[in-house]
Amino acid sequence: MARPDIKEARREQILDAFEICVARYGVEGATLAKTAEQAELARPLVRHNVGNRNDLIDALTERFLQKSRTRMNSFLEMLPREHRSMKALEWLFDPHYSDARLIKVSYALITHSYENEKLAAAMQGWLDDFIARLDSLLAEDFPNAEPSKVTAVATGITGIYFNVESLHGLGNNDSLLAASKQSAVILLNSLGTARA
Amino acid sequence: MARPDIKEARREQILDAFEICVARYGVEGATLAKTAEQAELARPLVRHNVGNRNDLIDALTERFLQKSRTRMNSFLEMLPREHRSMKALEWLFDPHYSDARLIKVSYALITHSYENEKLAAAMQGWLDDFIARLDSLLAEDFPNAEPSKVTAVATGITGIYFNVESLHGLGNNDSLLAASKQSAVILLNSLGTARA
DNA sequence: AAGTTGATTATCAAGTTTGACAAAAAATAT
DNA sequence: ATATTTTTTGTCAAACTTGATAATCAACTT
Q1: Closest CA to A22 of A52, A51, A61
Q2: Contacts of residue A93 in chain B, CB cutoff 8 Å?
Q3: How far is the CA of B192 from the CAs of B138, B143, B145, B150, B186, in angstroms?
Q4: CB within 8 Å: B187 and A182
Q5: Are A42 and A67 within one domain?
Q6: Do residues B120 and B182 share a domain?
Q7: Are residues A34 and A92 in the same domain?
Q8: In angstroms, rounded to a whole number, what is the distance separating the alpha carbons of residues A38 and A35?
Q9: Closest C-alpha among A156, A83, A148, A90 to residue B190
Q10: pLDDT in tens, B60-70
Q11: What residue numbers bound the domain in which A26 lies?
């Protein structure tokens, strides 16, 4: 008995636009006007569908954490049975599969964490979770490696990956990507021979 | 015949404050009011001593590049004759010697590079220079290592270092720092035995 | 066709940020 | 002490950002 409710679709559309702006300009630089323009919508629609600025940030944060979890889950599930760790690296450093925006958003949110204690805790948890999952994967593949060394390698690979993703778009970074991937492989190989 | 000119000192004071704000809130979030408050000066003095917003950003960028060069130079000069690479790592990952602010500023400026092509080129050069210098250092210490591998290790260490510095202040990151350092050491050791 | 619900538009007020200028105060040389 | 130069303060207008509301338009149900 009424016009169809497309609020959910609009909401996603707006959060997509906001995410792009946050990745590009940082949280403080992502104004409602830029967001609306990016979404190709009038500014009042942002408010109508999502809410005020704080609502936007909260919604983006929640969606970011959700998407990260989902993405990581499917990432791990899609890994083959053999050579899981090496395949994981290949995907992480493959520009075709990578999602630089997500990493940039995470840096933006972490920067914004100075203002928001709850956000800081959430991002800390997100980071820990990322490393822990990679850690588990490596531990499975290298059962004979020393656990603390596995953790170090997981941390190192994460750092290299985050760095290269956050720098994506600066310029011609093909060589940076290649060298980063190679160093990640060196770290992986330092754990010995992978379980068959 | 006149009041003493303290413009240079004030300028540094203001740029220090602006740098802190940029590191904490990003370029877009570092308002003139926040900067003035951080510098404990009235806002009009910012304009009087440095200029408008663009002048501030330009001045900060120039000073950042200058400081980076100087810091890197003295860093390399102060390295001992023996075990140079390992000592470099110890310094890089020692919170006492590190300068997280500089790395955060670099990320903020890189984010802002979307707006400014010249800035993008400068930051790309800065990044390349950082890696290249580390590369040279490692090449000296490991003359028998394959050059491409040395470059990979230099890139990896840089990524791990940048990442951990940019995350500094998020929370209790002692374990992240320790694991990051350990992975950097693993990378270094992968080059073989250092030149005596 | 009419009514109902929700999307869209138009518009405005309040707050913030920036840019700019003029007047006042301070410090030094003569 | 006075003139000169520079800092410091006070102030204001313009531009931008945000928050909010009312009015209009569109689509679907009955």
Answers
A1: A61
A2: none
A3: 11, 10, 7, 11, 10
A4: no
A5: no
A6: yes
A7: no
A8: 5
A9: A156
A10: 999 999 999 99
A11: 1-51
Asked if A170 lies within 8 A of B123 by C-beta distance, the reply is yes
Tell me, yes or no, whether A56 lies in a domain: no
pLDDT tens across B17-37, in order? 999 999 999 999 999 999 999
Q: Quick check: is B44 in a domain? A: yes
CA–CA gap between residue B195 and residue B85 (Å, rounded) = 10
Nucleotide nearest to B11 (CA to C1'): D7
Domain count, chain B: 2
Contacts of A135 in chain B (CB under 8 A): none
Asked whether strand C has any atom less than 7 Å from the CB of A81, the reply is no
> For residues B111-142, b (16+ Cβ closer than 10 Å) or e, as one string?
bbbeebeebbebbbebbeebbebbbebbbebb
Q: What are phi and psi of A61, to 5 degrees?
A: -60, -50
* CA nearest to B131, candidates B161, B151, B106, B110: B151
Task: Quote the pTM value.
Answer: 0.95
Q: Both tokens of residue B143? A: 């003359």
Exposure string over B26-56, b if 16+ CB within 10 A, otherwise e: bbbbbebebbbebbebeeeebbebbeebeeb
Strand D bases, protein C-beta under 7 A: 3-11, 16-22, 26-30
Asked whether residue B81 falls in the same domain as residue B172, the answer is yes
Query: Quick one: A82 and A40 in the same domain?
Result: no
Write the pLDDT tens digit of every residue in A13-48. 999 999 999 999 999 999 999 999 999 999 999 999
- Whether residues A148 and A182 share a domain: the answer is yes
Asked if A20 and A75 sit in the same domain, the reply is no
A147 touches chain B (CB under 8 A): no
Residue A23 lies in a domain: yes
